[in-house]
Amino acid sequence: MSKNNSLKREARKFRDCDFKPSNVIDYERQKYRLQPLNESQRQYISALSHDDFVVGAGAAGVGKTYIASRIAGQLYRDSKNIKRIIMTRPNVEVGQKMGHLPGEIEDKYAPYIVPFEKGLKDELGNKYYSDLHKGITAKPLAYMRGETFDDAVMLLDEAQNTTVTEMKMFLTRVGTNSRIFISGDEGQSDIKGTNGLQWLLHQVRSQGLNFEVVQFTKDDCVRSELCLTLLTMIEGENKVPVH
Fold first, then answer.
1. Calpha distance 43→87 (Å, rounded)
2. Quick one: fold of 47-92+106-218?
3. DSSP assignment, residue 174?
């Protein structure tokens, strides 16, 4: 039996264990190692790994949220300065409203943090579940005012659905030794008027601020060929005639 097959079998045996042999941990990290699929992703991974404030903006399906979650998981696991991950996104729904959700605040907000889960679970494994609601926390924007987040990675997704006021409030929650990773698509906003992401990008560019902004296009889409075709259709859409 090859060494790789032997490690694969051992990794399966320890899959659901909190404590794993070092060779199994090394195997799993190598197996799920984050690899860029295009130049934009390479720039994004580099920025997230080295900078305190990063915005990933642009088309759907390019990996903005997944990659930011993976890097946040790496920092949480490996950096002595990062002790928390704060996940948030505006609770703006597309189209018809779902109404009130049952349960406690964590249960009500759970559907909104699903986009973060894949990246965090791939990076942290069982540590994601053991640390959820402890070091890894979901915070609705509406409950953030007055908070200060020290030693944290602050993840904001769907930033195009924040208001300018919400964006300003989120940005000013950052404390000592913390980082901010923001993702969103200016073209998919569900709110009227200037949104928080548009405001932020304008301030960064017009003031010449030294913040990392990685701009994705539809050509960076990695979700699927069909998704790319549909993005192309949406980008070139013709207005429906009014009769």
1. 23
2. Rossmann fold (3.40.50)
3. B
Q: Considering only CA atoms, which of 90, 85, 69, 75 is closest in space to residue 138?
A: 85
**Whole-Å CA distances, 131 to 114, 120, 135, 180:** 16, 11, 5, 20
CA dist 104 and 177 (Å) reads 31
DSSP 177-224: T-EEEEEE-GGG--SSSS-HHHHHHHHHHHTT---EEEEE-GGG--S-
33 vs 17: CA distance, rounded Å:
20
What is the model's pTM?
A: 0.83
pLDDT of residue 239: 74
- Mean pLDDT for each consecutive 10-residue tract of the chain (243 residues)? 56 59 54 88 98 97 97 97 96 55 65 90 94 94 94 98 97 98 94 95 97 97 96 87 70
Residue of 77, 13, 36 lying closest to 216 (CA atoms) = 36
Sheet containing 152-156: order of strands: 136-138, 84-88, 152-156, 179-184, 53-58, 212-216
**Packing angle of the helix pair 39-50, 64-78 (nearest 10 deg):** 30
| Backbone phi and psi for residue 202, each to the nearest 5 degrees, phi listed first | -65, -45
Distances (CA, A) of 235 to 56, 134, 188, 231: 19, 41, 11, 6
**Identity (one letter) of the amino acid at 31?**
K
